[in-house]
Amino acid sequence: MSREAQQTGADGGEAREPRAGREIVAGVDGSPESLAAADWAAREAEHRGVPLRLAHAWRWEPLDLPLVQDEETQRHAAEEVVRAAETEIAGRHPKLEITAEVLTDTPVAALLDTIGEAEMLVIGSRGHGAVAGFLLGSYGQQVIAAATRPVVAVRARDDRAAEPPTGEILVGQQGSPEDSEAVLRFAFETAAARGAAIRAVRAWSLPPLFAYSPASLRLADDAGGLVPFEEKALRDALAPWRERYPYVPVTEHVELGSAGQVLLTTSGNAQLLVVGRRARRGALGQRIGSVAHAALHLAPCPVAVVPQG
Predict the structure, then answer these.
(1) Most distant CA pair in the chain: distance in Å?
(2) Segment 152-190, tens digit of pLDDT
(3) What torsion do the CA atoms of 279, 280, 282, 285 make, to the nearest 10 degrees?
(4) Is residue 152 a contact partner of residue 303, using CB atoms and an 8 Å limit?
(5) What confidence score (pLDDT) does residue 164 get?
(6) SS3 of 69, please?
(7) What residues does the UspA domain cover (predicted)?
(8) Residues 29, 81: contact at Cβ < 8 Å?
């Protein structure tokens, strides 16, 4: 199932030519959350001038009685999920190139295989408390932890046809410029495509009395103290991206506190929150970090989780 049409930019003018091998992938399962994610992905594809691919994972599983369904019935139901999503998104975005398909695999394996060299994967999220559901429960968390491309979690709105917010792109910066290269690249690319401003946030904590090395203390002293040291670290990380995207307005925000807490308290005016993650392997498999976990649960806006390192 596919539909092709000439593309236009977000401002109604001619769009950029799609980059070879690039697309945005949205996972759909028929839920309001996944349809909101597909709609968000369609707008982002228009901003970036790339095609949209809708994907639904399905694999034949015999169902227990009293529910009796044969393989063909389940297959038709899966095809109807993507057909309905494609029809709805095509109606909202008639000039966007869209393809849609059923992937015959488990949800995690199918979505991870599909994103390949995609710009990003977009999935639905219920958020605000316990994260549950087909696309952001155990499946979604596994996808985010293992994905090699950015994954954006979008929660359903009361009116999916409403215009998207016009706030900032909020991005969390941690560690060295090299540590945050991927997350800042994604944030600046997104802001440039949307004509949005960036608020870059660096949270810091007072070091344990015996944990700070003499070399670190010397660097902080050279910078004039701990706060100026953190401010300089943020400026240094932003410098190459400001040079590459001089037309993107940037606000620097350095605050004492945990990264998750600081990002959430500054996310009220954000249209997108961008955080990095390094997957950690626990007893039950790969897990995302605490900052990404807090953002996915509690942020009031879509959250992009970008793999680092």
Answers:
(1) 73
(2) 999 876 444 455 567 899 999 999 999 999 999 999 999
(3) 20
(4) yes
(5) 57
(6) coil
(7) 22-155, 169-307
(8) yes
> What does the alpha-carbon distance between residue 242 and residue 16 come to, in Å, rounded to a whole number?
22
Its pTM stands at 0.83
pLDDT < 70 positions in the chain: 1-21, 60-69, 126-138, 157-165, 206-225, 279-287, 309
Q: Are 116 and 264 in contact (CB under 8 A)?
A: no
CA pair distance 107, 85, nearest whole angstrom: 17
Q: Which amino acid is at 135?
A: L
Residue 198, pLDDT score: 98
Number of continuous H segments (helices) and E segments (strands) in the chain: 9, 13
Sheet holding 120-125, edge to edge: 2-3, 98-103, 52-57, 24-27, 120-125, 151-155, 303-307, 270-277, 168-172, 198-204, 250-256
What are the structural domains, with CATH classification, of the chain? 2-155 (3.40.50.620), 168-307 (3.40.50.620)
Distance CA 2, CA 145 (A): 30
What integer pLDDT is reported at residue 235 of this predicted model? 97
